[in-house]
Amino acid sequence: xxxxxxxxxxxxxxxxxxxxxxxxxxxxxxxxxxxxxxxxxxxxxxxxxxxxxxxxxxxxxxxxxxxxxxxxxxxxxxxxxxxxxxxxxxxxxxxxxxxxxxxxxxxxxxxxxxxxxxxxxxxxxxxxxxxxxxxxxxxxxxx
Length: 143
Known about the structure:
Strand content: under 5%
Number of strands: 0
Largest sheet: none
Oligomer: single chain
Shape: globular
């Protein structure tokens, strides 16, 4: 991945363009591979859903929307951390450590929410994750 990133940066693109490209490529791969998944969700009556029925169900739409919003917000923050820090006059060394810490926290948060989903309702977990994310970013806008 780092060699590919170096090629993109050497071609004259900046870091934000690189991150956008990575996001589009990963997004396309996720969509492509998700088409290979055969859902086993069942209707209350016990009938199996077809892929088309599952994709049109409220269950799928809620999860897709929740996961999209959480992922999109995370990508926007990760892609902008350096710019935000530079604007705040933070040193390069502190910025590198901050981005690394953010990445580790992001990873641990995904593991934690995944583990909680094993014990609680997935719908509740997606809602709670987005609610906590909203609460965390709201204070600067409330004052």
